[in-house]
Amino acid sequence: MFCVAPPELETKMNITKGGLVLFSANSNSSCMELSKKIAEDVNTTVMELLIMVYACKTSCAKSIIGVIPYFPYSKQCKMRKRGSIVSKLLASMMCKAGLTHLITMDLHQKEIQGFFNIPVDNLRASPFLLQYIQEEIPDYRNAVIVAKSPASAKRAQSFAERLRLGIAVIHGEAQDAESDLVDGRHSPPMVRNVAAIHPSLEIPMLIPKEKPPITVVGDVGGRIAIIVDDIIDDVDSFLAAAETLKERGAYKIFVMATHGLLSSDAPRLIEESAIDEVVVTNTIPHEIQKLQCPKIKTVDISMILSEAIRRIHNGESMSYLFRNIGLDD
């Protein structure tokens, strides 16, 4: 089993910290577990994973289970123009290397599971975030769940229905998760003057989209605004959403997300922004970012990962971990 896990999970699974550790989970040598903390260079980590998985495969391991809380390149899961679908490539490489099962958390798009020809358990962090809202936000009954773009509306609706709260959607903001600039595939630049295939043939061009004026659908005046999303990487869209909510009368702004990449100057920008608190899980280590910005809080999700590992190792059902999860969650 190849486990790319947070430090807390290493303690629960009796894995020594630092480096790769290979040990037998019990007297049965057919199940082996590998653990390594995520390195800063994701490409190096992925390559190490593939090598170790292949080493287990060539050593006749009965099962090789990958535990990857944050699946890398998950934003590149759709084909745009003539670009590549990197998530599909990564899934094919993992399956070819020898993975027999994958445990991950909150994939950017649930359809990524279809890229694998092995079982994939896409766990959810929302129960931990919902518990944080109920226990750590005293006046959460006066809150409203906010989607910073229409693309996040389903997630916001799921949170709102479970907390019995209202929902608001910000329309007009740039949808970072779906843009070419964010995932690095805006290359080469578009050529505006393109000659027709034949002088007598003109192919109609699709009218380009124009970002409408920023509007907030829903009432946030005098209430706590809780912005929910799956990934916080580039925080510009979150900062713009926070400013918009402040202008509409929200007196406190929280940001909730599963994966806190918080790259580049994100901690400094959050510290200087109107956001009161950013809550992320520990699927990705972010201790340095927390030192730079006290507003960043962490929710521990190692319990559900360790329980998933235990159930798979003992051959128990995984359905218990997916209770009350609908198609839109």
TrEMBL record:
Q: Which BP terms from GO are recorded? A: 5-phosphoribose 1-diphosphate biosynthetic process; purine nucleotide biosynthetic process
- Record keywords, A-Z: Acetylation, Nucleotide biosynthesis, Phosphoprotein
Its cellular-component GO annotations read:
cytoplasm; ribose phosphate diphosphokinase complex
A GO MF term: ATP binding
Q: Which SMART domains match?
A: Pribosyltran_N
Q: Which domain of life is it from?
A: Eukaryota
**Ribose-phosphate pyrophosphokinase N-terminal domain segment(s):** 37-98
InterPro entries given in the database record: Pribosyltran_N (IPR029099), PRTase-like (IPR029057), PRTase_dom (IPR000836), Rib-P_diPkinase (IPR005946)
NCBIfam families, per the entry: ribP_PPkin
How does it associate, per the subunit comment?
Binds to PRPS1 and PRPS2.
Its biological purpose: Seems to play a negative regulatory role in 5-phosphoribose 1-diphosphate synthesis.
What is stated as this protein's family in its record? Belongs to the ribose-phosphate pyrophosphokinase family.
Protein's recorded name:
Phosphoribosyl pyrophosphate synthase-associated protein 2
Protein source organism: Equus asinus (Donkey)
Show the taxonomic lineage: Eukaryota, Metazoa, Chordata, Craniata, Vertebrata
